[in-house]
């Protein structure tokens, strides 16, 4: 339903331009708008809703904890904190965890830990630490993070910028090698670039980066806020390569689509530089967040969701490949239940226009930029619903092709 444009621009900061749908409820992969129209959610809150809307297991965990204890601040311990830490480190094969709230905070925390580790352990000269990062990355919206963004919209107008970052082309191991010097404390990368349109690095990049970081005593930091927790068909995207980063950031799905819950997991000797008073967060690791996080871990521990993502991901890939063969997509990139598709330029359809047409037909997704859209349905989607979504996509693209005379 169309909301009054005036109302919207009058009271709400215009930093988003959402599709014209106003949602009121959700159930697993389906959401309903104010007029009762149903849509298949193929964005899933940018992967925050990996386990679907209104998930009964997660809801139960929230409700149970809600009536017990929700916040103590970090001035006191509570009974959910240590079990959450233990279960999360076990799930991710790591030693230690630092709880935060949003993804950007987890990335900021990893940057802070890496710098402090650099000065105190590696012996980098004061104020000289640098971190190697990638072009077209997305790590959040804080002033420091946008300082090394290569997206003009995300960055421009927010200076002065935080120094200490070296930007290299994504997936270019030689460029990382050249950027590293004695003051390099970390290399921070997304294992798969989500916001950029589900862009995969060359097959050897992450294993090579692991080796390069170890050789040079540089921390490998992988931002798995979007790629982690089942999306790719494995618990973490780095599992696909059998490697472990020194620090990994998690967020989005860690809060089950209920609360912002993020964490840095990784090496004990690195996270141990964060001594009392040197870092913190009022809400980080609150009892409610830990309870939701534990319920998420419980689901992931069974491994079934990851298996589904892998199996349904194959169907997603086959369907998209077929649409590409029909000549309607210029490129298809997919891993697990996660895909970036570039509309064939001849169709003359922007990503935004495509998303609008899909929404009319009852399928919600989001363009990333230009003619690229990302598909990331909840991992709990049924095969039938996934095929239904692909039917809608196929028919919208077929219609556009017919309309402009390409068949
Ligand atoms: C979404 C995202 C973030 C930022 O998370 P917020 O919770 O929005 O701060 C950071 N890194 C990656 C890879 C993301 O996808």
TrEMBL record:
Principal EC category: transferase
InterPro entries given in the database record: Aminotrans_3, Aminotrans_3_PPA_site, Class-III_PLP-dep_AT, Orn_aminotrans, PyrdxlP-dep_Trfase, PyrdxlP-dep_Trfase_major, PyrdxlP-dep_Trfase_small
Coiled-coil residues: none
Obligatory cofactor(s): pyridoxal 5'-phosphate
Any one of the GO BP annotations: L-proline biosynthetic process
Pathway: Amino-acid biosynthesis; L-proline biosynthesis; L-glutamate 5-semialdehyde from L-ornithine: step 1/1
Originating species: Bowdeniella nasicola
GO molecular function term, any single one: identical protein binding
Family: Belongs to the class-III pyridoxal-phosphate-dependent aminotransferase family.
This protein's UniProt keywords: Amino-acid biosynthesis, Aminotransferase, Proline biosynthesis, Pyridoxal phosphate, Transferase
Protein EC: 2.6.1.13
Stated name of the protein: ornithine aminotransferase
């Amino acid at each position: 339903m169309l909301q009054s444009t005036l109302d919207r621009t009058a009271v709400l900061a215009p930093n988003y331009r959402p599709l014209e749908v106003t949602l009121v409820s959700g159930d697993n992969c389906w959401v309903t708008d104010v007029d009762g129209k149903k849509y298949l959610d193929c964005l899933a809150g940018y992967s925050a809703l990996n386990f679907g809307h209104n998930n009964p297991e997660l809801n139960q965990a929230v409700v149970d904890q809600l009536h017990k204890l929700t916040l103590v601040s970090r001035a006191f311990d509570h009974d959910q904190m240590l079990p959450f830490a233990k279960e999360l480190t076990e799930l991710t094969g790591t030693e230690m965890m630092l709880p935060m709230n949003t993804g950007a905070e987890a990335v900021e925390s990893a940057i802070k830990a890496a710098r402090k580790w650099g000065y105190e352990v590696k012996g980098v000269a004061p104020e000289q630490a640098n971190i190697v990062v990638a072009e077209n990355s997305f790590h959040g919206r804080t002033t420091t993070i946008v300082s090394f963004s290569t997206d003009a919209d995300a960055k421009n107008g927010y200076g002065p910028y935080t120094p200490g970052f070296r930007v290299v082309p994504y997936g270019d191991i030689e460029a990382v090698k050249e950027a590293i010097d004695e003051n390099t404390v970390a290399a921070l990368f997304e294992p798969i670039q989500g916001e950029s349109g589900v862009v995969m690095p060359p097959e050897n990049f992450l294993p090579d980066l692991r080796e390069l970081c170890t050789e040079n005593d540089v921390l490998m930091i992988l931002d798995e806020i979007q790629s982690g927790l089942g999306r790719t068909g494995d618990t973490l995207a780095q599992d696909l390569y059998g490697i472990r980063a020194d620090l990994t950031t998690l967020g989005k799905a860690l809060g089950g689509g209920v609360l912002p819950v993020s964490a840095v997991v990784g090496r004990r000797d690195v996270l141990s530089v964060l001594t009392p008073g040197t870092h913190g967060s009022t809400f980080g690791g609150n009892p409610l967040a830990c309870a939701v996080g534990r319920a998420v871990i419980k689901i992931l521990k069974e491994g079934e969701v990851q298996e589904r993502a892998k199996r349904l991901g194959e169907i997603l890939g086959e369907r998209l490949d077929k649409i590409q063969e029909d000549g309607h997509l210029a490129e298809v990139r997919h891993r697990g239940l996660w895909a970036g598709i570039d509309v064939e330029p001849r169709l003359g359809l922007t990503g935004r226009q495509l998303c609008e047409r899909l929404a009319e037909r009852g399928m919600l997704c989001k363009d990333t930029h230009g003619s690229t859209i990302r598909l990331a349905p909840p991992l709990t989607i049924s095969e039938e619903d996934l095929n239904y979504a692909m039917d809608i996509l196929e028919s919208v693209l077929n219609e556009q092709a017919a309309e402009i005379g390409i068949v």
